[in-house]
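Re-running the complex after MR caught last week's input typo. The corrected sequence lines follow. Everything else is unchanged.
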Amino acid sequence: MTRLLQGAAATALLSGIAGMAMADGYVIGVSNTVQGNGWREEMVCAIKAQALASGQVASLNIAHRNTDAAGQLEDIRNLIQAGVDAIVVNPASADAVNPAIKEATDAGIVVVAVDQAVTEPSAYNISNDQEEYGYLGAHWLFEQMGGEGRFFYMRGAAGAGADNDRDAGVQRAMAEFPGISVVQEVFTNWQQDQGKQQMLDFIASGIPFDGVWTSGIDNVIVDAFVESDEPFVPVVGADNAGFVGQLAAADGLEGAAVSNPGSIGGAGLTLALQILDGNPPAEHTVHVTPSIWANTTDEGRAAIAAAQNPNLDPEWPVSVEIPGWTTYTMDQIIACDGPGE
Amino acid sequence: MRRFLARHYWVTGLAVLFVLMLGLTRIIQPGFGISGLESVTRAALPYAFATAAMSITIIAGGIELSVASMMAVGGTLSAVLMAKWGVAGTVPALLVVMLAGAAMGAVNGVAVVLSRVPDIVVTLAMMYVWGGVALLILNGPGGTATPWLRELILGQVPLPGLRWLPQAALVMAVVIGGIWWSLRRSKLGLSIYAIGSDQTAAFRSGVAVGPTRVAAYAIGGMLAALGGLSLTLSTGVGEPIPGPYLMASVAAAVLGGVALTGGIGGILGPVIAVFILRLARLDLTLMSVDPNVTTIVEGTIMAVVVMIGGLVALREKRR
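Corrected-run output:
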């Protein structure tokens, strides 16, 4: 046992020393608490690809595991100990990781929260406008349902900042359509298997419903309809490659994809580098606005057709680049190599 | 001295490994010092409570798979109560949280004793029950933590000569050590070890097996709830989704010298083991090892530890 530990430590130590040898440029830390989710994997790959493309990053120090906010506090503190110049963090919660973020900014480390905002004022936030994301998809869905009926509301993770914001957007759309109500509300925790099971269970319950709003766990929802031989209802999802492919193939499916680029991670890295170079943005919060592609309009179909790329992982968002924020190529993000790899 | 080493060779070995790992961390990151030790200790705090809860139930011959869910209940309940009752109501809130933890553990214990279903099955089911209860208390992060309690686990002990010692370590020593020490000196503690090593023999010597098991689970539940409280104190909000404490606490208990067959083990070993596992994570981060490899290494350490524990247990049984 000890020998195994020592062996692992020695190997890791060697690679660590190798990493330190090329200390030219910034060292950037990354903290993420959901592993094995396509969107988050794209986010991490965007950070790596952008770090490589920028030429300003000596090495990345990535803490990427499935954990809770307390685990993220530990990871951020470990990154502080590692002496990074900046930390790009996808926070587990808007408030809970503030103590460690404050410690980091007090230590002179630039902290950029991507995807979901944190309330710590010394941190910078860059995210997709999640409230607008919720609103755009829900508005399309309710129109598609004819302004009347009940929809299955498949949210993300309870308490996550993005989930709360999207819910606010969905509620805003519901206020415009008084004939629409929620038949059931579930949390998928943004896990494919969990979301699919919830959809299968709901279909099996036989309760009638007229639409499905998903928080990005989408292609497996369409699969659930196909597998249970259930007629399609309109489905809203994100711009994940698998779902966009299903929308392109149509086969009676009416759906809309709302863009939510995981490449926001790359944008977060760019923002961190700008701040390190002495060019902070005017506001501490930067928003990237989503767009919607419905396969019921010519315009949407054109956007969907243009976004097809057979090399992309089906769970990755197809909008892999954010103009003005990312400079890597499609091949670089798919390769998912950071500096020194 | 030799007798001490012979009796406590496992704990001594762990302590040496811990010091070696501190040294290794210092080599990797020369800046690692008092503040680093403090952040590791704070990270270790919830794990230490989870591991203590796991250890007491394993020593009593059971296992507590609902530990992370009970922590979520303790965390959310404490956050809600501290938000509702304010600073003045903090001490009553603490008592309620401890009682709720003991009650949850007692429910688990009674279910195990009455149903005669193996502990592993009952507590696995209760994992979902308590997970649901936590979501009923708070369906998203919420509540608050009383500032003076939060400061209790922050920084170093403000006493001359102890300014290197993290407050979180002191809290750990006083709370976990206190509970354990009083247990070891009581008849109940003796009975817990007795039923863990041989239920029949314990029964024949007049130990009330059922109530003792329930008591062990109740103490475990209380420790888990305190672990949940420590989560709330470190984040400042209560979180209903259970964290990664189940596997980590089994691994730390086993690595710390608690035998999966029951009846053997203490608390010092498992707590040192918690620190070793946290330092392993820190070192992997400091060396910027690929995050997926980090997960594999961490998982492998835990799996190997538990497997060795299982093998040892099997050999003991055959004897």
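None of the earlier attempt is carried over here. The longest helix of chain B spans residues 291-318. Chain B touches chain A through 53 residues (CB under 8 Å).
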